[in-house]
Design goal:
Elements lengths: L16 E6 L6 H16 L6 E8 L5 H6 L3 E4 L9 H5 L10 H18 L3 E4 L3 H10 L3 E5 L5 H8 L15 H10 L2 H4 L8 H9 L10 H5 L3 E4 L15 E3 L15 H6 L7 E6 L6 H13 L3 E6 L7 H8 L5 E4 L5 H7 L2 E4 L3 H10 L3 E3 L4 H12 L3 E3 L7 H13 L1 H15 L3 H15 L2
Parallel strand pairs: 1-2, 1-4, 2-3, 4-5, 5-6, 6-7, 8-9, 8-11, 9-10, 11-12, 12-13
Helix pairs in contact: 1-19, 4-5, 4-9, 12-17, 14-15
Length: about 450
Amino acid sequence: MTRPRARKAIYKMGEKKVRIVFCSLFQDAGEATRALELARGLRRQCPPGLSPEIIFLSHGGRFDEAFAEAGFSVTPAKPALPGVGFRQDLKTSALEFVGDAGLAAELLRGEYEAMLEIRPDFVIHGFWPVAGMAAKLTGTPEICYLPVPFEPKAFSTWLLQDLPDFVGPLTLLPKTVRMKIMAAIPKSLKLKIPLLRQKNLIRAFELAGGKENRPENLFDMLKSDFTIINDFSVFYEGKPLPENFAVTGPLYPKGTRDAEIDPEIQRRLKPDSGKLKIFCTLGSSGGKDFLLEAIRALKRMENCTSVVLCPPSVCPFQEAKNVAGGSPDLYLTDAFVPALKVNKMADVVLSHGGQGTLQTAVASGTPVVGFAVQPEQQINLEHIVSFGAAVRLPSRRWKADAICGALKTVGTDPHYRSKMQILQKLLTEIDGETEAAKAIWNFCSSQR
């Protein structure tokens, strides 16, 4: 691949059209829905005299239709991915975001070539290092939206205070001990964990002709001209952040008021049932084993009724039904549900720690029991835990007995719901979509 001379796109307030490309891991529901909410906000908050041309650059998937229905252009990027789920599509491994070096090179080449053809004024991406590298190769200004401030100083000092689950058996230690161990680890060592290295993506950058500014880790790949954090500012009070970072508030799909709820869900989660009501939503990154263990736990729960989402990309529906064993108080579905409405019907949400899922639980005022499969989810959960509205189980302790115990604790202690309702009130005072859009337009105007 021959790299052209870097072009610095200039934003001029006098121009009528501003071309913006959204490119992210649209196989992941959280990344896709945040991008869509942000694009809508940019369209609504566009300064007078400007007309944003918003293009979604996609490798295919179920959200392409949603982008188009919202009135945005969708441009395909090579290669087209199967659309099963991000783990399957990217062949992810324990340490590699893209598990196949050849696929990583194809993805970067496809986005690089598409950006050269589209020639956007700005590229907006989420936690998707491929788009970050493609933007750098083409010399296009980058804007990044992230669930947490993923940057070296924060990561090595205050962002991750508990041992990450991937360290193994040490996560079985008491939390106070884990936190002391984490605090004792040198900052430089925290920045050298293998997960940050991403050798396949670095090799893809080299194959793309990236001889200058070669990224050394994920931080370099995601480093942008401007970064917004889609989270509560209360979680970052007194915490130092780079000048080009802005915490703009939660950003999650609100759904539609007329969305219908499955009658079976309504029956299981009816308010006068006298039973503890659980909504299990582990998302596409939860993993089959975690989902099946949650089903085993819910099957054991007494005086409890549960609704469990079973995404086809995570687990074959029949396999999940076999584990459920026909339990009368356990309803499984692989269909879309209006998450906010169903969250409000539950007493406890069982979650994998994805930001969109957690913010939806906050919006409904429903406390959470969860686990994390990656550091970002762990940080998301720990924020809610520190507020007193959730319990997080280390992934190695995600066993039926521990899940049942946590559900009983959170479901019967009103403290958790009252704390979540405080967060819920904070959420009603924040318009994360508007704040994020305004921050981005302000950044764009500064690039004149």
